[in-house]
């Protein structure tokens, strides 16, 4: 497995461990966090387990040399070697389990936030749709009012045209009356002239 799978167990750090690390009980830390967190009380920063033994805190290299690999377990009985390997594998499995649990918690937290955001988005969309419906209703009312006003304007325009026609008729009527009166006067004048001329016509030989 790749050593990058192991990360500093400090929640605010989570740095990938690639060179050296400080191993404590079932937890592992980067050197910087270990120097900051460990104090005279000798407690594990992750689980607060009391660290009383000299080998409870160990600085280890994550990339040991071949010479170190050859000599570190040399001289130990097979049972001790197997016990060391078993504990090392158990430590690794615990770290992988913790990392998986952490990632699941992160995913769950993200999903919860997404669900909350989706809920808020749904509320915003619902409110926006409500506002749109209200605006559409107001727009329909305004369009109805506008059509009524247009109809009134058309009616007023038509009434104005009718009044204009009547006015034009009234303007023409006095002119016709004057023309008729003038015709009558001319006719009467001509008739008078003819009547006055008849006695003279009667005495002519």
Provide a quick synopsis of the model.
By secondary structure, the protein is mainly alpha-helical. Helix content is 68%, strand content 6%.
The secondary-structure element order is EEHEHH
- Largest sheet, strands/sense/barrel: 3 strands, antiparallel
Radius of gyration (CA) equals: 56 Å
Shape: rod-shaped
Specify the number of helices. 3
What share of the residues does DSSP label as strand, in percent? Answer: 5-15%
- Give the class from helix and strand content and strand pairing: mainly alpha
Say how many strands there are. 3
State the strand order across the main sheet.
2-1-3
User: Which consecutive residue ranges, at least 5 long each, have pLDDT under 50?
Assistant: 200-205
Helix content: 55-70%
Distance between the termini: 162 Å
If you average the pLDDT, what whole number results?
85
């Amino acid at each position: 497995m790749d050593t990058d799978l192991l990360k500093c167990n400090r929640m605010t750090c989570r740095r990938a461990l690639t060179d050296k690390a400080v191993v404590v009980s079932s937890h592992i830390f980067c050197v910087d966090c270990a120097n900051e967190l460990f104090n005279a009380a000798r407690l594990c920063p992750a689980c607060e387990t009391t660290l009383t033994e000299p080998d409870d805190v160990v600085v280890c290299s994550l990339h040991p040399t071949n010479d170190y690999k050859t000599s570190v377990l040399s001289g130990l009985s097979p049972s001790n070697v197997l016990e060391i390997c078993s504990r090392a594998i158990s430590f690794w499995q615990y770290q992988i389990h913790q990392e998986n649990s952490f990632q699941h918690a992160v995913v769950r937290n993200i999903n919860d936030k997404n669900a909350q955001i989706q809920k808020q988005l749904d509320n915003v969309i619902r409110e926006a749709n409500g506002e749109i419906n209200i605006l559409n209703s107001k727009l329909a009312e305004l369009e109805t009012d506008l059509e009524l006003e247009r109809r009134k304007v058309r009616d007023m325009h038509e009434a104005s045209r009718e009044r204009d026609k009547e006015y034009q008729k009234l303007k023409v009527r006095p002119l016709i009356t004057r023309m008729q009166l003038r015709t009558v006067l001319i006719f009467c004048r001509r008739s008078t002239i003819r009547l006055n001329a008849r006695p003279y016509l009667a005495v002519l030989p």
